[in-house]
Structures are given as C-alpha cells and as structure tokens.
Please model this.
Amino acid sequence: MMDGLSLEAVFLLLAAPFVGSFLCVLVLRLPLGEDVVWGRSRCPSCKHDLAARDLIPLVSWVMARGRCRYCGTRLGYLYPVMELAALGVVLWTVAVVDEGVVAVTVLLGWALLSLAAMDLRSFFLSDAVTLPLIPAGLAVCYWLEPQAVWEHALAALAAAAILACLAFAYRRLRERDGLGYGDVKLFAAAGAWTGAMGLGTVLLWAVVVNVALLLAGRLAGQQVSAETKVPVGTGLAAGLWLTWLYGPLSIL
Model:
C-alpha cells in the first residue's frame, strides 16, 4: 500500500474515465462483431454521429441528463457506471498493491471489468480480451517470479482442461450449454495470473458472486430456476481480480 499518490497513479486516475468509456465500446460492440477502433460513436437509437462534446466521460452524460441530444432517447447508465468503475479499479489498486505493480494490476482490472460487464449484459466473452490475458499473465509472472513461470503455464493448461471437461459433461448430462469456451479461456487466464494455488480461490469467489447475482435478481422480481442463465464469466472475472489482489484463501 502506498502512503501517497505517485505520478503513475495520478495519470491512471486521470485516464480512468476515458478508459471506462472505451470499455463500454468493447462491451457493446464486441458481442455484435462490430469494429471497436475505427467505427464512429453513434446514438444507438437515432444513429446520429456524436460530436466531441458528447463524448466527455461523465460530464456529457450529466449535462445531457442521460439522454441523446439529438433524439431525446434515454441512454441508460452503462457509460457512467463503467467510467466510475474504471476509476474505482485505480483507487482500489492504489489502496491494496505495492507501487511496482500498480500499472499491471490496473490494466488487469480494466480488462476484467470489461469482461464482467460483457458477460453480465450479453452472456459473451470476447477472445479479443480473454486470450491476451493468458500471455500477459505469464509475462507478469516471468517479470515478478521467473522461476514460477512454468508452474503458471501448467496451471493455465490445467484450468482450461478442467473447465472444458466440465462444459462437456454438463452438455452431455443436460443437453444444453452451461459453460462457454469464453469461460474456459478466462479460467486459463486465471491460472496464468494466479498459478495453481489460486485456482480454487478464483472458483470459490466466482460461485459467491454468481449466487449473489441470482439472489439480487430474485429480490428484483426475476424468476430464478434451474434453467436460469448465469454469467459465469462475471464471477470468474471477479474471482481472478480478488485472488490477484489478496491471494489464495487459506483455511489454516
């Protein structure tokens, strides 16, 4: 934990709302196969191109009272929530981790935030985000603990194999998909980042988060049954984040 904010942390805090806005683009466009780099920002309702003044994080949404300036359609809360959440990732990181790993932890947090929101909204995890997390986790491991990189690589393979087998077994038993291959890739990324010792904790947190989501849905009046779809990737993303920050849980 740092006693004060470094220049790196200040830069990340200033960048966070803009990053959060870009993460919204990933959440909205990747499940649809749309371009996330060159495509113009448009109102989802009237398709009007947005001007620069419409794209200022938080400020534009507040000034327009959450509506499109051109057609008046409500824009929802995804953008301000993601922009604030991206800021929260930086503050949480600065409060918990050592200064040397602030940047990589924030980048991990932002990636996991986009995946959690994407799966929660669309039940989709994009390869464009999940797959790079695997070599990134191994690279960070090599940087911090070179002698452990092979163990983390094996953990990534084992994690993918475990979840792939569970997905196959569930499909055979229930004759429908319960786990997607995006979940398999994200759990492999968890192995790359946390090693074999962290995988159990990642899964435990994932179960806790997904149960909490189901309970929240039930309290909100939604019907919850054995057929209810669960955003497993959202739980895995939260589990990886918490395990990276606080380490594996111990019963000793």
User: Anything to note?
Assistant: The radius of gyration is 19 Å. The chain is about 65% helix and 0% strand.
